Each structure stands twice: as C-alpha cells, then as structure tokens.
C-alpha cells in the first residue's frame, strides 16, 4: 500500500494523552522523512512535526513544542506521534505524509510531501 496508514486517534479529555501511529509499509524509513499534520474544522492544514531518516526532528507548530514528540521505528516502518497535555485546540484530523527525501523541509508546505494517509480524528473535549 503506497499510502501511509494512521491510527490511534480518539476522544480524550483536556490534559490527556494519545499516541498516533503512521504505518508506511511501502517505504523504507532509511530513505524517507515523515511528517505529521492536522486540520482543524474550517481551517487549513497545519504542519505539526517531521522526522528525517536519521531521526532529526523539525517542529512546525510552536503550540505543540514540549507536548508532542515524534519517533520512528525503522524495523516496523512506523512513525509515532506522542501527544501529551492535549487541549481543545488540538482537535482535528491528523495526517501523516511521506516526503521523498530523507530530510524534513524547514517550513511546511503540503506540496513538499507526496503520499498522504487518510487521517485519524483526534477530539479533545470535556
């Protein structure tokens, strides 16, 4: 499957945590970078964070620094997004996407990433 597949979304209370997974079975993570993005209702896609093939992390959203962590398991071709201290502003559909280069771009543009998953819904609500 060429598209990555996200999982792990759900409903969580403010202050709670979720871990999202992005399985990119068609891609060896030794050669690709993976980004996480989100889209809140009525808003444009927002870049969240990206991990390069060698594990370097690029943050795109100041609002998640210190709360969200990205990691990768090359043996499973899977990238994880650990989200802690969630708040209602984190609500949205979360997507992962594959970039055809081993490094992350310094800024987020949708066109920099070629293969997008279908997304997983994250809802933060009391």
Sequence stretches where pLDDT stays below 50 over 5 or more residues: none
SSE run: EEEEEEEEEEE
Note the overall shape. globular
Helix content: under 10%
> What's the main sheet like?
7 strands, mixed
Helix-and-strand structural type? mainly beta
Distance between the termini: 36 Å
Mean of pLDDT: 95
Rg from Cα: 13 Å
Report the count of strand segments: 11
Q: How large is the count of helical segments?
A: 0
Bin the strand percentage: 35-45%
What do you see in this structure?
The chain has 126 residues and is mostly beta strands. Helices cover 0% and strands 44% of the residues. It is globular and about 40 Å long. The chain starts with a strand and ends with a strand.
Secondary-structure map with pairings?
Elements: E1 5-7, E2 10-12, E3 18-23, E4 33-39, E5 45-51, E6 57-59, E7 68-73, E8 78-83, E9 92-99, E10 115-116, E11 120-124
Parallel strand pairs: 2-11
Antiparallel strand pairs: 1-3, 3-8, 4-5, 4-9, 5-6, 7-8, 9-10, 9-11
Summarize this, please?
The protein has no helices and eleven strands. It is mostly beta strands.
Kindly list the characteristics that best describe this protein.
single chain; 11 strands; mainly beta; seven-stranded mixed β-sheet
